[in-house]
Design a protein that fits this description.
mainly alpha, elongated
Length: about 425
């Protein structure tokens, strides 16, 4: 990583177009994509984003990779002291220099570390948002989380950590409600907070979020998009199963007719009539029969199953690190549908990719790509998530697959290859 590659997006755009613009891409799509993922496309560690930020903020010179790690640590330590920011939101015996070293070398960090860095490095709202969505590959500020809202309010107004503690204490002193209010879509709530000008209005609005034992407030918008896409995916699978049932009935009819074709016990008309009854009586699938296991089978196609019928561990794939160990297993789908976990961008993009990949009405690859990107970006922004980010290996992978002649086939072939490489 030198100064010429300090812009991660441009670097990965070059790799993307070098892959999909070749004359042989459609003939060797899965091989080309897998090769790029292995050789050129890697998950950019959080520490690299942090180093880049410090390099630019401190106006350092020379090659970024030549700057000693200790220098980056010192910038953090000095900045935290200047901005009256502690080494952690909670008590810890670790030294700030040691924590700084971890942040600079880790692949990912806890979400709260980013908010702490926001105060310690005197970041803007945009800076913190960039770290949340690009460096950490998570959602932007959650405007249903009082802690994050107070952080956001401070960054927006240029307030430091002492003011944050003051506002957080004021929020903690607010009475809790017994029954949660209907907060509506996250993007609407965000707009309401953005219109706030005084601390009194901020606390009055935050009071709506303080519910006794409410636990996590899930994103209404993300869940709504998920539910719509999940229903669409189940309908596609239902249609596929019904097609297979019709073909299977036709094959059984042919087999029956062949088996009795020379039998003198039946007339030609009787043989034909019985075969026709078999052909026209396929199994009729119902949407209620399409379960999370069926969705897993389609969305995780290419991933082998073990003897117990479970997907092989993602750690056994050469792409586990690239894709951050995420996949749409039946357990993950169940956890989302029962609100045990919130919906993230990976979930939404995977479901949307499947919908477009299976759409037989779109026959032009570039048209499919443009429509997918457009809908994906509108959906992500509606959920207060950042647009598609090509420097994220999984999202780059989906974009390359969507440009191939058979997106789901390419998707499955690449995943299958990632397990074969470890055999």
């Amino acid at each position: 990583m030198d100064n010429s590659t300090i812009n991660f997006t441009e670097r990965y755009e070059d790799v993307f177009y070098d892959t999909v613009d070749t004359e042989t891409f459609q003939d060797e799509d899965a091989d080309a994509i897998y090769a790029r993922l292995q050789q050129k496309i890697h998950l950019i560690p959080f520490g690299d984003y942090l180093k880049r930020y410090l390099y630019q903020k401190a106006s350092l010179t020379g090659r970024m990779t030549d700057v000693p790690l200790h220098d980056y640590q010192e910038i953090i330590v000095q900045s935290f002291a200047a901005n009256q920011t502690p080494k952690s939101f909670t008590e810890t015996s670790a030294k700030l220099s040691a924590l700084a070293k971890n942040w600079l070398t880790q692949r990912s960090v806890k979400r709260q570390v980013i908010f702490l860095l926001g105060f310690g490095l005197n970041m803007t709202v945009r800076d913190v948002s960039e770290f949340l969505t690009h460096a950490q590959r998570e959602r932007d500020f959650n405007f249903k989380n009082p802690f994050e809202i107070i952080c956001w309010y401070c960054y927006r107004n240029g307030y430091g950590y002492p003011k944050f503690r003051q506002l957080l204490a004021a929020y903690d002193a607010l009475p809790s409600k017994q029954v949660p209010e209907d907060l509506g879509a996250t993007i609407s709530l965000r707009d309401e907070f953005m219109a706030i000008e005084t601390e009194r209005d901020l606390l009055r609005k935050l009071a709506q979020l303080k519910i006794d034992n409410c636990g996590q407030l899930f994103s209404v918008s993300a869940k709504a998009h998920f539910d719509g896409l999940y229903a669409h995916v189940r309908t596609i699978i239902l249609d596929q199963y019904q097609r297979d049932a019709i073909l299977e009935a036709e094959e059984r009819a042919k087999a029956y007719y062949f088996s009795v074709s020379r039998s003198p016990a039946l007339t030609y008309e009787e043989k034909f009539a019985r075969a026709e009854r078999i052909r026209t009586s396929p199994r009729i699938w119902k949407l209620s029969e399409i379960t999370e296991a069926d969705v897993e089978k389609f969305l995780c196609c290419g991933i082998p199953y073990d003897k117990k019928g479970n997907l092989l561990r993602f750690s056994q794939s050469t792409l586990a690190v690239h894709f951050n160990n995420k996949r749409m297993s039946r357990q993950h789908l169940h956890d989302i549908r029962t609100r045990r976990v919130d919906v993230d961008r990976f979930d939404l993009l995977t479901l949307l990719f499947f919908v477009y990949a299976m759409d037989e009405k779109i026959t032009n690859n570039k048209t499919r790509y443009i429509r997918f990107v457009d809908q994906a970006n509108r959906m992500l922004q509606d959920c207060c998530m950042d647009k598609l980010y090509i420097a994220n290996p999984y999202e780059c992978f989906l974009l390359m697959c969507i440009l191939s002649d058979a997106p789901m086939g390419t998707y499955a072939d690449v995943l299958e290859r990632s397990y074969e490489e470890l055999e």
